[in-house]
Amino acid sequence: MAATNLIAGLDIGTTKIVAIIAEPDEGGSLRILGVGKSPSLGLRRGVVVNLEKTIRSIQDALDTAERLAGVEIGSIYAGIAGDHIRSINSRGVIAVSRRGNEITQPDVDRVIEAAKAIALPMDREIIHVIPQEFIVDDQSGIRDPVGMAGVRLEGEIHIITGAVTSAQNIYKSVQRAGVEVHDRVLQPLATSYAVLSEDEKELGVAVLDLGGGTADLAVFYDGSIRHTAVIGLGGENVTNDVAIGLRTPRDEAERIKIEHGIALQSMVEKDEIIEVPGVGGRPHREVSRDVLAAIIEPRMEEIFALALREIQRSEYVDLLTTGLVLTGGGAMLEGACELAEQVFDLPVKIGIPGGIAGLSEEVATPIYATAVGLLRYAVQEGLGRGRRFLSTGGGLFDSILARMRRWMDEFF
What we know:
Strand content: 25-35%
CATH architecture of the domain at 86-164: 2-Layer Sandwich
CATH topology of the domain at 86-164: Dna Ligase, domain 1
CATH class of the domain at 86-164: Alpha Beta
Structural class: alpha/beta
Number of strands: 20
Shape: globular
Largest sheet: 7 strands, mixed
């Protein structure tokens, strides 16, 4: 493929790593060129616990995506999550003293810097600083104050922080896999770009990404993000419960959860039977699907209850007019929507990325929401700020040669 401007997203999850390469057109639409997915073998709850395994998993996903796209990528937009993520809302205030009292971009930058002046422990760093709204002389609800007249400018800012070492290990893993991190993006924020409409963000909505190691939450109202949180429970906890409750190997428990799992026990037909392999050569057993549902429902209910508690902390629980959007692998569990509606007492829908071309059918599932969201973030934020996207190398042959050189450098 000839050199062109492409973007690439890398969703580094607890159970899977997904790489997607896409080409944006002038209008910002995406054409998916390559998709790669590999098991995530070196992470726990979104945090790197085995660097070498994480590097190999990232390389496998990148290799597959590059092979399909026929190009080599030099940098990616990386998703970051984990239960070390924290968020706060902060306010900055400045005086506008120039002649005519016209507010300029440097004033906006100053008020954001003032809001960022918070005390952070040495082991934490700021990942995102997201303006929510500006206030000019007590007039609130202003999105862009540049050009307006005023003597006092305030800014409401959402600040997301993470552990320094966790972010460094993500950087190191990606770099040793042969690519650079163009930007890092909080995964629930990225997911929102893929599955939420502007109307939903205006009227009030929450998105809950049910991943393998964590459940990632983002709350939006009046067009801005208001609260983010990462809950340290996910699909792996459900799988472990099934493995213990049915006394079956963990791999079989994952298969049973995907093929027969259901999150709401009342939806199960009482005469449904499933076959459960034994452990260590023990014979297979037949178990009622009702028993499986009785194992899964309490854990899913716990995850939803913790997410509801986070929404209540945001003080926006009564303003979520459009309800809740579920996405991620856990959203594909039968009955998840129905159980969520009971717990949250809100309308719930499954979030599926759309509005894409190319390999669109392959990524049109909740599993790929974060990876697609990273691409949309790159388009909307990158093009909006005049950033230059990645330039690819030559064709597939150049990609293979470059990757072989990296392997030679690593091993010799």
